[in-house]
Specification:
The strands form 2 sheets. A 3-stranded antiparallel β-sheet has the order 1-3-2. Strands 4-5-6 form a 3-stranded antiparallel β-sheet. It is of the alpha+beta class. About 60% of the residues lie in helices and about 25% in strands. It holds the Pfam family DUF4364.
């Protein structure tokens, strides 16, 4: 029975790593809890325990944002998931993928993503990129670029990929 319980705990941790990988964006404890509880993947107390254990093991990072704390999947977490992902059933993986896709759309709707640019001087454009969630600025990035073409490209990419880019920026900044 102990083996089965240990195996189940490991599976739940893999599920959490897979969820974080599928979202590909930093998530608050509230967002993770809401998602896991809605889908009945595990109970609240186990979820909190496993999140803590994954942070302690260096597979998740728990970092401060402007007014919230966020969980991020670390490189160690990604490597562990890739190594052990085959222990999760194809049915479970597919179910999580579909659920994450729907929930991610809801999270993205809660986020306001803006990208704009203006000409400052000849061959100098200021690009202003933002992600705001529930009236909290998650990131406000200003870039100086040399051409109108680059400014447009940056704005377009930001509009299409802001949550992923934001997650990568945060990961790069906190990576040790």
């Amino acid at each position: 029975m102990l083996y089965n319980n240990t195996q189940q705990q490991a599976e739940h941790k893999l599920i959490l790593l897979y969820i974080m990988d599928e979202f590909g964006i930093p998530l608050t404890n509230t967002q993770i809890t809401q998602f896991v509880m809605e889908k009945d993947y595990m109970n609240y107390f186990s979820l909190q325990q496993f999140l803590g254990e994954l942070v302690s093991a260096g597979m998740l990072e728990y970092s401060a944002g402007e007014q919230n704390y966020f969980y991020l999947l670390t490189e160690k977490g990604k490597n562990t998931l890739q190594y052990f992902k085959d222990r999760l059933s194809a049915e479970a993986l597919s179910s999580i993928q579909k659920a994450v896709a729907l929930k991610k759309q809801m999270f993205l709707k809660e986020m306001q993503i803006t990208a704009d640019y203006m000409k400052k001087r000849e061959n100098e454009y200021i690009v202003d990129l933002k992600v705001v969630e529930n009236d909290i600025t998650l990131i406000d990035l200003k870039l100086n670029v040399a051409s109108n073409k680059h400014a447009k490209q940056i704005c377009e990419k930001w509009k299409n990929e802001a949550p992923t880019l934001y997650g990568e920026i945060i990961h790069l900044l906190i990576q040790q």
